[in-house]
Amino acid sequence: MRRGFYIGRFQPYHMGHHLVLEQISREVDEIIVGIGTAQISHTVTDPFTAGERIAMIYGALRELGRWFYIIPLPDINRNAVWVSHVKSMTPPFEVVYSNNPLVVELFMEAGMEVRRPPMYRREVYSGTVIRRLMIEGGDWRQLVPDAVAKVIDEIKGVERLRNISKKDFA
Amino acid sequence: MRRGFYIGRFQPYHMGHHLVLEQISREVDEIIVGIGTAQISHTVTDPFTAGERIAMIYGALRELGRWFYIIPLPDINRNAVWVSHVKSMTPPFEVVYSNNPLVVELFMEAGMEVRRPPMYRREVYSGTVIRRLMIEGGDWRQLVPDAVAKVIDEIKGVERLRNISKKDFA
Amino acid sequence: MRRGFYIGRFQPYHMGHHLVLEQISREVDEIIVGIGTAQISHTVTDPFTAGERIAMIYGALRELGRWFYIIPLPDINRNAVWVSHVKSMTPPFEVVYSNNPLVVELFMEAGMEVRRPPMYRREVYSGTVIRRLMIEGGDWRQLVPDAVAKVIDEIKGVERLRNISKKDFA
Amino acid sequence: MRRGFYIGRFQPYHMGHHLVLEQISREVDEIIVGIGTAQISHTVTDPFTAGERIAMIYGALRELGRWFYIIPLPDINRNAVWVSHVKSMTPPFEVVYSNNPLVVELFMEAGMEVRRPPMYRREVYSGTVIRRLMIEGGDWRQLVPDAVAKVIDEIKGVERLRNISKKDFA
Amino acid sequence: MRRGFYIGRFQPYHMGHHLVLEQISREVDEIIVGIGTAQISHTVTDPFTAGERIAMIYGALRELGRWFYIIPLPDINRNAVWVSHVKSMTPPFEVVYSNNPLVVELFMEAGMEVRRPPMYRREVYSGTVIRRLMIEGGDWRQLVPDAVAKVIDEIKGVERLRNISKKDFA
Amino acid sequence: MRRGFYIGRFQPYHMGHHLVLEQISREVDEIIVGIGTAQISHTVTDPFTAGERIAMIYGALRELGRWFYIIPLPDINRNAVWVSHVKSMTPPFEVVYSNNPLVVELFMEAGMEVRRPPMYRREVYSGTVIRRLMIEGGDWRQLVPDAVAKVIDEIKGVERLRNISKKDFA
Asked: DSSP letters along B80-122, please?
């Protein structure tokens, strides 16, 4: 049995993440999805809570009919203990999937196998692009799985993001 | 759609928990299992990491063929914000299942519906009893689902518990 | 102008505290009341939130027609920086009133003047006694100022304390 | 009885805040003034400690002859629990006064009534403007209540701000 | 080059520690002394600050004419990341010396070599015994190196310990 | 006996620091070197752990044949208690050496003597310059003591810094 670990902030979970997970699911038996910066929400770059992100990812993955672990990971703000932190919050895994240079370096220093997943249509499958479309009224729905759009609608996520991105005159 | 929330420390997950979850699963559509005191491990009362507890519960629930959310919840050490903390880390839920007086009080003050699940064979389906059996070499395996015993064996959990429960002469 | 500093947990604020503050108010121009362990609530020894304790003390002192500073002080869990912590959260003061050995030692080491206030009817003007009376249905109202009893009633404080002091069978 | 909650960083408290509080005091019975980011001081944007800010505001409000609650609120760095955090540190309140988009959003999501107070002479009644005048030797005194200027002088606040705004050649 | 790691709370550093370090110094080239629970002081079980403990140990070891690393280690309160925490605060080391069951278990799980140092006159070379002698006026000086007694006298350590061990009547 | 306190982040320790310490060592009997921001590593501005920085400084100072205290100081993120924090982690000292405006201000407000050490060849004896040379493949070795270069090589510090400074396309 072989488990892979994939981490992201998922603000929100989009088709780029989804295509990577489909790819990874062909290489390992089980996938652990770590939700990074889990403690932050209601900011312009991190609008959604960990619970909301779990609901998004869970909905998208359930459609695939596969078992996944979806685990919120609060920041620990000490890179030197971060790998231990992740390991203590997850079932054992053998391979890490990441393109983030810091994540790659930390797991490599810890002696783990790290693979770089392919990146799909990076110019639109991007949290930054999607959040900007949400604020400006563009078409973000086509960039995320349907189950994700459904969650964002239920929590009034676009309204929240627009409100908190207003200028503060205080 | 109706979700129920059930929280415990699960040190370890045992048949008492399992029977409650089977009961709850007949009352709601989806169950969120919160792993309390997620940040603590390697102590006599809390020997297992959150990741190890996730593996135990996941194994036991997968055998049931049902979807569950299993979410580690680190202590926040401020009861007055604890309900908000839980809500931010979980998908929305409508009913709480707990017999813990503090959990009941906090969710009641927050205006949530709280139900008391039945408790099964409390004299043996008990984390305290099971950990003592582990230390003393008793038969703890019959008190937990098979998938849980398998995880505890893989991580050498009994050996760990015995080691850390030795007297400190320092 | 001369300010005095008086600290307590005030779980709840009672006539013993009140008599001390009346005494202190004859010695200094302004009194700063520090609410210790401000972050804790909903426990058997610390049932009330900082906000609830502020409301209690404020009500009791307003009846006296005097100006007071009432300042919540979260624990910092590092005694060596605690005096700096207190000073950073309060207007400047010249004298400390306390009978707590640790508070006395920390302010003495910091070179501050410390006075021991008289203690009144210690066998009943005591948070421990009052909380026990609340749980057991005894007459706690005569031991606190009227304004305090009013706040405790409004927040259903006795019911909360009784609920959280129930035995946990989980 | 109706209480209003007004929050700011008050670095320093100025006439813009003061005019808002005068306005609010006509709408509610009691005002709770929350001092945000209470734990930070000695920086270019947040030069004053919570205790110093309490002294400033207290002095200004006492001149009005009204009762106010002035409560330091340390950051909790988790927006999703911030409203609970505020509520646990304050007496109960019914209406929030704020123009800060995040504060507005968080209290709105919590189902509270939020009002936008008028803003007065925003181009000069501004902490940023006042701190710049302090550094550059301009006339900041006319922009704050007399009691505030007195506190700033006593703590040598302008000297502190100038010192810490020097370039670091280290 | 081979480094050994030895950890204790050193409240205070006594002849038992000293004899162990002399023993260890014959087995490795360099010794790293970790001061555990570095953030705590002014309590009955942990009266001395990390800085005071560094001064004690430094004085005792300098008399030996050997190079040592003396490193304060604040508690991190998460056993699962503790080894990473220690490693990030220390130069690389190859062998751990400890009789503490938890320390032994954590380093063993991390795959490190752990040795049990001999324990000398455990009935008197004991922090608990020495602190009790300090409180009761017994002869503690013969149980610590001279340099340690000198530091304790300079900081008035015995007076502090007696003061904070008084009963709290508050 | 007179001790001086010198603080820096030492990312990495370089000849500028070394020349200052040589200068200070002529003015005081013992030097305490505080390693600031000790908890941070593996970032572009703070690549090295506290333990790695201790090894660097220790190696450089041992060549001088002098006794030094080298003490990691985690950030406390509350300037108003920072001086107390430093004092609790260090042996007593009488004079502070710093050119950092905030450090100077905080120790001055605490009534300590502060001296400004001379700065040597600031245009190259600079952590920023040295880290940029490391990334770009320039000659950084001549700017640090030999013992420091040796440690950086052993931990593959340049490779780490280059890896984590790559652009994140995630």
From this structure: HHHHHHHHHHS---SEEE---HHHHHHHHHTT-EEE------T
Binary contact (C84, F87; C-beta < 8 A): no
Query: Chain F partners of D158 at a C-beta cutoff of 8 Å?
Result: none
Q: Would the CB atoms of C160 and B78 count as touching at under 8 Å?
A: no
Residue to mutate among B88, B154, B160, with most A CBs inside 10 A, is B88
Q: For residues C158 and C137, what is the distance between their CA atoms, to the nearest angstrom?
A: 9
Answer for the pair B15, B54: CB distance below 8 angstroms, yes or no. Answer: no
Per-residue pLDDT band at B5 (split at 50, 70, 90): very high
Q: Average pLDDT of chain D?
A: 95
pLDDT at A169: 55
**pLDDT surpassing 80 at residue C169:** no
| Alpha-carbon radius of gyration of chain E | 16
Query: A38 pLDDT exceeds 70?
Result: yes
- For residues D13, D15, D18, D19, the Cα torsion angle rounded to the nearest 10 degrees is -150
Whether C67 has its CB under 8 Å from any CB of chain D: the answer is yes
Strand order in the sheet with F95-97: F68-72, F30-35, F3-8, F95-97, F113-115
- Distance, CA of E147 to CA of E156 (rounded, Å): 14
Radius of gyration in angstroms for the set of CA atoms belonging to chain C, rounded to a whole number = 16
What pLDDT, in 10s, does the model give residues F113-167? Answer: 999 998 888 889 999 999 999 999 999 999 999 999 999 999 999 999 999 999 7
Instruction: Note the pTM of the prediction, 2 decimals.
Output: 0.96
* Chains in touch with A (≥3 Cβ pairs < 8 A): B, D, E, F
CB E121 within 8 A of CB E91: no
* pLDDT-above-70 percentage for chain F: 99
Ordered domains of chain F (ranges, CATH): 3-164 (3.40.50.620)
Burial group, residue C77, by CB count within 10 angstroms (0-12, 13-18, 19+):
exposed
